[in-house]
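Q: Could you fold this chain for me?
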Amino acid sequence: MAKVAAIAAVSTGVHAAERCDGPLCLLVEPNAGAITIAAVNRGAYAPVTVTVAVTVTAPDAEVAGPGRGVLPPGGRADLARISWPGGGAGEWRYDYKWLHGAPSARPDPDALYVLPFDLPGSQVAQGCDGWVSHRGAAGQAVDFALPEGTPVLAARAGRVVGLRMDRSAGGLERAQVGQDNRVLVLHDDGTVALYGHLAQDSARVRVGQPVAAGDALALSGDTGYSAAPHLHVEVYSPLPDGGRRTWPMAWDTAAGTVTCPRRGTTLRR
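A: Sure. Below is the predicted structure, expressed as structure tokens.
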């Protein structure tokens, strides 16, 4: 997941540029008094959903294009075109968001999720619609209280499509939001599982690797927006506008199937 901004000045000296963020690359292509912003998915395993918002300062500037796209592996889409019919110039800016996955994905209603930790049980630190951070887009996520260094397991079979393991810090500063280490797994139904707040450099998998339910992914940690060591798990589909929708997970536990466990509940194998 990402939200990145880029700024450039329009002039006769503008050159083609490329900026990559994971599998997604944004291309700036000047031609005949206009600039095209295109997106390319250079990944091999998952679609990506991307949105672009363009801001211009020149009053005669015109911005056209869909501003969004869903790109299969290897796919390309032209997202925006900036032109100056009067031949003027000025500053312009684009902001973009992207997510692994496609908005059309819907979860398999029969899917069961194994508990994603190598322990007999764990207490739910924050459940669905939790007051700390599980509101809105993250409303169906579950946080498990885990000691740092606990093996984190795949809750469901799929393929690893994203990894970030270079973060060492954690805390409740707003700058830490979205800055955790994480593993993303694409399921057969197109939904994506995100395992977050992992320990630095603890990955046990690589991008492109198939995983079965119960396979080790990484170690739990306390990175990103976090008050204490825990594991964040969510299953999502992107939204066309750049957001995401999370889906309920049916956990296979010793007490039977549990969906949307509440804070303080202990789930056991």
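A (continued): Residues 7-12 have pLDDT under 50 and may be disordered.
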